[in-house]
Amino acid sequence: MSRRTRAAAQRSHRPGRSARWLQEMQEVSRLAATGEEVGADVRPVQPSNARKLYICPGCQQEIKPATKHVVVVPRDAPDLRRHWHTSCWLMRDRRRPGN
Ligand SMILES: [Zn+2]
What we know:
Layout: H1 3-11, H2 15-38, E1 40-45, E2 54-55, E3 62-63, E4 69-74, E5 82-84, H3 86-95
Antiparallel strand pairs: 1-4, 2-3, 4-5
The chain binds zinc ion (ZN).
Residues 56, 58-59, 61, 85, 88 line the site of zinc ion.
């Protein structure tokens, strides 16, 4: 790669996108850490992948299609996957300590 081409490539790397990506990565690792506590895989579901209506086990309210949320998949029982509002999942310990 010539020096000129490399400089152009660096210029096209937009800081806005990078910051958002970093935020996503931080969220993913934070969610994964909460999953570790309960032996589950916790992954964010992007609005474009949220095509169905779910009932959140945390608040019993609807998670509407095209809403960003999380899916929680117990490692020893993948069939028992549950969709949660992101905030409900992150708040669940505060509501039910020791459970
Ligand atoms: Zn909820």
